[in-house]
Specification:
518 residues, mainly beta, 14-stranded antiparallel barrel, two-stranded antiparallel ribbon, 52% strand, elongated
């Protein structure tokens, strides 16, 4: 049951993942560990640089040493509109789905405490900040349909029946499968595999990952800035996946050819009454994941000269307690004709499975180094972050832990991932004393062993100082378009064609920050 539940929990269509098969716990562990973008519109516009640049609400969840640059208090709210578009082609039929949602990207406040030290040396201020920051957005919607004449979802079911005897005994009651007995007995579909079947796949994903950060930063002699933070992570994810198939069952004679002893071929039996009928099969798999975790971090920024900043930021692993819950159900109805709405024969409804499993994911250490160069009317900043995804750990937290399973999953993680370097580059130019233009680029190197394919995010924005107290920033972000192949179900038998949809995913994000300094 544990393996079955954890395999069903697919954090599908995560940015940069070219999905060809249902995702597993190994993929979930990576998605829980990865942060795509965070902060205010200003820092997002500059590619997310914050290691060597301070004086922004983003410093609360980024490099807390940046709080030391504040000379007054600050409060801001950042809202965003995130849109994910999937264009899919399945057996010649094209479908386009858009999924756009508004949400809070960041909200925070910094309280400035000056020391009133008027000398050139010593502590100049001690600043405190608290923020809510969205670190990842899981919202996505994939839907496609077409006419398949090559395979049926029952091929996946019969393979699962072979692997799980209890499921095999249960699903025989659907009358869509039969078993040939004997030493080399096997399950096989009683539906027409090579005839047209209308199929539809739908997966709606909602959820996000937020971090609440409490940070402290200080300024020493306007040369050295230090800070520390504590982060509380919350994760919510819900995947509603539905597979639908409409086709015909075989005639009694067609089933008898493969299994001469089959009850489907014997007149008067219950099984025989389910031959040569139109059927609808709906397979529902709803997976919910909730997680709560904690981490801490320290940072520093050094100014060797007035026009240079050098920063270092280190964030500890996040221990995330996860609860995973699934709702699994399969429904089958039978009809005399393909277009009939009146069912014949008793249908099939599987026992509803509602398993719950608790475990923990320990994310990697994150270390970044950055540099900022200031000019008369602007700045350039860059930072490099290293994350060793190979060090992600899965932990059993139940009362009776299965350490063999734990070791097996951690081996898969080590065998799948590697360390990755992420590069953030951005700049800002003051067009006038009130108006600033910004642009940035974020490069996310591949975390997968054997792959050098990188992801990236382009960004650009404007900032305007409305008055001495109020300001507004606007940013647009465009993610790398992904083209990948998606399978509505999986068949291990390579003699049977695997149904494949070709999908192109495009994501964009518009972000607005409104703030006030006091």
């Amino acid at each position: 049951m544990k393996s079955k539940l954890l395999v069903l929990s697919c954090l599908a269509l995560s940015f940069g993942y070219q999905q060809t098969k249902a995702q597993t716990l190994t993929d979930n562990a990576f998605t829980i560990s990865r942060d795509l973008n965070s902060g205010t519109a200003r820092f997002k516009a500059m590619g997310g640089v914050n290691t060597a640049l301070g004086g922004d609400i983003s410093s609360i969840s980024g490099n807390p040493a940046g709080l030391g640059f504040y000379g007054q208090s600050d409060v801001s709210v950042t809202v965003g509109y995130f849109n994910s578009q999937n264009k899919a082609e399945y057996f010649g039929n094209s479908t386009t789905m858009n999924n756009g949602k508004f949400g809070i990207e960041n909200a925070g406040v910094v309280i400035h405490y000056p020391t009133y030290n008027n000398t050139d040396f010593g502590w100049k201020n001690f600043n405190f900040g608290i923020s809510l920051d969205r670190q990842n957005n899981f919202n996505d919607y994939l839907k496609y349909s077409g006419t398949n004449t090559e395979s049926t979802i029952l091929h996946e079911f019969t393979e699962l029946m072979e692997a799980t005897p209890s499921f095999g005994s249960e699903f025989m009651g659907s009358y869509l499968v039969d078993r040939k007995l004997g030493e080399n007995g096997y399950y096989f579909p009683t539906v027409l595999e090579a005839d047209p079947k209308n199929q539809q796949y739908e997966n709606e994903i909602t959820g996000q990952k937020y971090q609440t950060s409490i940070s402290f930063g200080a300024n020493y002699s306007n040369k050295f800035y230090i800070g520390a933070k504590v982060g509380i992570v919350s994760l919510n994810y819900d995947s509603k996946k539905t597979n639908f198939e409409k086709g015909w069952t075989k005639t009694a004679e067609e089933i008898r050819r493969e299994n001469p002893q089959s009850n489907f071929g014997k007149p008067g039996t219950v099984e025989n009454g389910y031959t040569d009928l139109s059927y609808d099969l709906t397979d529902i798999r709803d997976v919910k994941i909730k997680g709560v975790g904690a981490n801490f971090g320290i940072g520093m920024i050094f100014k060797p000269t007035w026009d240079w900043n050098i920063g270092v930021n280190i964030t500890s692993p996040t221990w995330t307690e996860v609860q995973e819950e699934a709702y699994i159900e399969t429904i089958v109805d039978y009809y005399r004709t393909e277009n009939s709405s009146e069912t014949v024969k008793p249908g099939y409804g599987s026992p509803v499975e509602n398993p719950v499993y608790d475990y923990a994911i320990v994310t990697p250490w994150k270390t970044s180094v950055g540099f900022t160069k200031f000019f008369g009317r602007g700045l350039l900043s860059a930072d490099v972050e290293y994350v060793n995804y190979q060090s992600i750990k899965y932990r059993e937290t139940v009362q009776d832990p299965d350490y063999n399973f734990e070791n097996s999953e951690n081996y898969k993680i080590e065998d799948t991932y590697k360390g990755a370097f992420n590069l953030n580059v951005g700049g800002e130019v003051l067009i006038t004393d009130r108006l600033a233009a910004r642009a940035g680029f974020r490069l996310l190197s591949s975390p997968y062993k054997g792959s050098e394919t990188s992801d990236y995010i382009y960004s650009a924005g404007l900032g305007y100082v409305i008055s001495k107290s109020f300001y507004v920033d606007l940013t647009g972000m465009m993610y790398k378009s992904l083209s990948f192949q998606h399978n509505p179900y999986w068949i291990e038998n390579n003699q049977i064609p695997l149904p494949t949809a070709n999908v192109k995913n495009t994501m964009s994000n518009a972000v607005l920050t409104i703030g006030a300094k006091f």
